Amino acid sequence: MPDAKKAVVLLSGGLDSATCVAIAQQQGFDVHALSFRYGQRHSVELQAAKRVASHQQITEHKVIDIDLRAFGGSALTADIDVPKDRDCEDAADIPVTYVPARNTIFMSFALAYAEVIGAHDIFIGVNALDYSGYPDCRPEYIGAYEMMANLATRAGVEDSDRLNIQTPLIALTKAQIIKLGRKHGVDYGLTVSCYDPDKKGAACGHCDSCQLRSKGFADAGVPDPTWYQKDVKS
């Protein structure tokens, strides 16, 4: 039998990236996942990424060290408070939880990894509907990055197959993502979305990511498996 086609999947340990892993596997890809220890304010998401990788039996999972805390500029990489109880639907500004150029940096690593293992597909769980307003989650950005990838790499120039940046969640609501993931067997109880969990990993329930996640489960009519801090939900 021929070898399975390979894909690199960016795996943060959150709801969206876990769904991307399942979608890639459903499409017949041999999944090689990348997670990053980039100086973020907690390591809970990396523990979640390892749980997801194990549960979904991916081929390979690498955790890469990058120090974005050297630059700061975000509530996730500097001593800046994470906003709580913000109205995500009405907010027009880019929130302070945006990490400057994070997706560009992560996808550059994924692009290099893809070239080495002979993969022509990179999956990233960006979303342009239920998201916090990050500029690097927009379709225009993904399209521009894919064009650059095919100009900047040997694989893009010499191979007959183009490099594809796959964004299967980009036009879905959080509820639609949850329904799709459950169909493909994703265990969302293994994932973590909170920007500001406690030391044990319990979610704050008040940050943008917690609000979007909670609303998604409610809209999907699916019980929320999130482990919240005691002062949020009993």
Provide structural commentary:
- With 234 residues, the chain is an alpha/beta fold.
- The chain has one domain (6-220): HUPs (Rossmann fold), CATH 3.40.50.620.
- It is 35% helix and 11% strand.
- The chain has seven helices and five strands, in the order βαβαβαβααβαα.
- It has helices at 15-26, 44-55, 102-117, 139-152, 154-158, 174-183, 208-220; strands spanning 6-10, 30-37, 60-65, 121-123, 164-166.
- It has a five-stranded parallel β-sheet with strand order 3-2-1-4-5, sandwiched between helices.
- Helix 6 (174-183) crosses helix 7 (208-220).
- The longest helix has 16 residues, at 102-117.
- The chain is globular, with a radius of gyration of 17 Å.
- The termini are far apart.
Give the arrangement of secondary structure elements.
Layout: E1 6-10, H1 15-26, E2 30-37, H2 44-55, E3 60-65, H3 102-117, E4 121-123, H4 139-152, H5 154-158, E5 164-166, H6 174-183, H7 208-220
Parallel strand pairs: 1-2, 1-4, 2-3, 4-5
Helix pairs in contact: 1-6, 6-7
- Could you name the CATH class? Alpha Beta
The helix tally amounts to 7
Order of helices and strands: EHEHEHEHHEHH
Sheet having the most strands: 5 strands, parallel
Separation of termini? Answer: 52 Å
What proportion strand?
Answer: 5-15%
CATH architecture: 3-Layer(aba) Sandwich
What's the mean pLDDT score?
92
Radius of gyration: 17 Å
Strand order, biggest sheet?
3-2-1-4-5
Global structural class: alpha/beta
* Uncertain runs: none
Query: Helix coverage percent of residues?
Result: 25-40%
Q: What is the fold named in CATH at topology level? A: Rossmann fold
Count of the domains: 1
| Total beta strands | 5
Based on CA inertia axes, which overall geometry fits?
Answer: globular
The CATH superfamily appears as: HUPs
